[in-house]
Design goal:
Helix content is about 65%, strand content about 5%. By secondary structure, the protein is an all-alpha fold. α7 crosses α8, α10 crosses α12 and α14 packs across α19. GO terms for molecular function: P-type potassium transmembrane transporter activity; potassium ion binding.
Amino acid sequence: MSPVLSGVLQLLALMVVLALVYRPLGDYMARVYSSEKHYAPEKWVYKAIGANPTAEMRWPAYLRGVLAFSAVSVLFLYGLQRLQGSLPGSLGFASIDPDQAFNTAASFVANTNWQSYYGEQAMGHVVQTGGLAVQNFVSAAVGMAVAVALVRGFARSRTGELGNFWADLVRGVVRILLPISVVGAIILVACGAIQNFAGIHEVGQFMGGTQQWNGGAVASQEVIKELGTNGGGYFNANSAHPFENPNPFSNLFEIFLILVIPFSLTRTFGKMVGSVKQGYAILATMAVIWVGFVALMMWTEFAGKGPAFEVAGGAMEGKETRFGIGASAIFSVSTTLTSTGAVNSFHSSYTGFGGGIQLLGMQLGEIAPGGVGSGLYGMLIMAIIAVFIAGLMVGRTPEYLGKKIGTREIKFAACYILITPALVLGFTAAAMALDTPANSMTNSGAHGFSEILYAYTSGANNNGSAFAGLNADTQWFNSTIGIAMLLGRFLPMVFVLALAGSLAEQKPVPETAGTLRTDKPLYTGLLVGTIMIITGLTYFPALALGPLAEGLAS
């Protein structure tokens, strides 16, 4: 079987499985977030934290819950790392330095999972399982909670109440993420991923000496790493490591885990607003972009010129032979379009245009299908922008799902889409202008610029993957990328929840003959075009200096 055909067949198989799961999982999540019943384990949690799960919250109270919980999480994870040297199960590793501890705490709480350290050489069992793995669950649940709050804003009227943050958070963990993770971990162990609490041990000869490896609860952390669109690996090689991702089947299964909740949440959205067709329109937009990016990535990685490319069957540098170009391309696009950050190949080794596709995928705003929760609310913000543009074309007040998109709503949406580019381009410009950050670049020219641009794009968009050609373990990058991750995660949530509250307070607008049908293919095309145009106008100059210049020169 040719490598190209193998990649295409894997893509088709993945699409079929996602389609089979889409409806039952989407409906189940809609029931979870609409239920008035509280299970016993959930009641124990509410009692422990002193929360009343039945109390409805307006958007400021909901936001305070999000920020307070996240702030405590940052402090807890920071403290756990700083105390590692004194904790049992540390494997002899020292406590983490302050700047790196801050960066890692910000990263995992913000659902970014950027890693400026070697996991198997820095973090012991307690930090890995009691700190990082826990944040993989709760940071994903926070994103889902905010998305559900926005959906309630569309679904409700004449009220500012958006539900209860604590109930949404706990239900997301207990009823959705935990059950799927248990099943997924069993599957990964069956595939060959390790799951133990063994210490450091020698595994044989390596370049004249012995090689050492850690044990760890890898399978359980790997599954939530992908399912929660987190991305932080137990090992530095991440999902290219055979302990995390042993074979082609586990690779495809991990891609499935990355995509299944973000895609299925569009069904949840449709059910909760009372129109599954609206969910299908959002799904179609996400799917068109995802499939298009995968096709482009496969083309650019298979179509390389020169003897080395012809012998290898494409751009095999930096890719695992057990996966090949096709599976690596699908994984790469899926992670950079979903705020996951996991990698099964070396992104810096992709062709110039391949690296550009990875960058553009993140710069779209992580919305196709995006992170768990964050992808849905990011896409709904773009849907509002698209409706507003359509309204300007015909001179009619824009409406979406029976809600008028007025001055207040469009200001919230505009602020949302401006925050991340400001962080990315501002920090990139500062890093390139100063001498110290530039010294961390291992490449010069266009590729070196792409390394810096990729780092801040990944951080501010809460992705977490890296070109890996940049030495990011410095005070400058640990601090600035940490700040970019926190601001890129929580500032947009402010405007999402403010928008949700504004929509929930409105009276429903009856549909008329002049109402734009947002459940039709025409609107899907408009939405795709809006996303690409906004992103292109924002980032094209930076992309032209980096991956486009590199691709045209090769």
